[in-house]
Structure formats: structure tokens, C-alpha cells
Amino acid sequence: MREIEAWLGIPARDVSVPANAPAMTVPLLAFHDREDPEVPWSESEEIVAAWPGARLVTTVGLGHREILRDRDVIRQAVGFLSGDAAERLRA
């Protein structure tokens, strides 16, 4: 946490994604594994609940890093970025 605070130059408690999420207008597709040992799944659930139109894809058994190599996660992310989300960003 100290590394993040040093990088940001502010205390981490001053940065709240859920608090800022209601003002977001860009699409969000979040991926999070229920068994992530580093970041609780509930944090993503809270962000997505506050972000208009956001969607959370939950995986099981991929942990914190293996989720980045999962073919289905990659397929969904590419589809999101190349599909409807990309159209809304161009508008």
C-alpha cells in the first residue's frame, strides 16, 4: 500500500473508485476471481454496483494473476473492447 501511495502522491484512503464511479460515463467490464488472495472480490462488486452500466465477470479458481492468461477472459475482454464498448467510446 505504501508503494501505491508513494506513486500516487496521496494517501490511498483519499482515492475511492466506488465514490467516483457514479460520475463515470465510459463503459466498464471488470473481471475478478472469487478466490483472489490479494484483492477481495467484494471490492469489484462494490465498484460495478456504483458504476453506471458496468458489468462484472466472476471467475473461480484463477486467483489474482492467472485470470490474465485465461482464454475465456481474454476472449470476453477483446469482444468488449472491439464491440459495443468501442462504438460508445467513439460517439
Notes on the structure:
The protein has five helices and two strands; from the N terminus they run ααβαβαα. It has helices at residues 2-8, 17-20, 41-50, 71-82, 84-90; strands at residues 29-33, 55-59. A two-stranded parallel sheet has the order 1-2. Strand 1 (29-33), helix 3 and strand 2 form a beta-alpha-beta unit. The radius of gyration is 15 Å and the shape is globular.
Task: List the defining traits of the structure above.
two-stranded parallel ribbon, 2 strands, alpha+beta
Unreliable stretches: none
Form type = globular
Summarize the amount of helix as a percent range.
40-55%
Distance between the termini: 37 Å
Strand order of the largest sheet: 1-2
Strand percent estimate: 5-15%
Strand count: 2
Helix and strand arrangement:
Layout lengths: L1 H7 L8 H4 L8 E5 L7 H10 L4 E5 L11 H12 L1 H7 L1
Parallel strand pairs: 1-2
Helix pairs in contact: 4-5
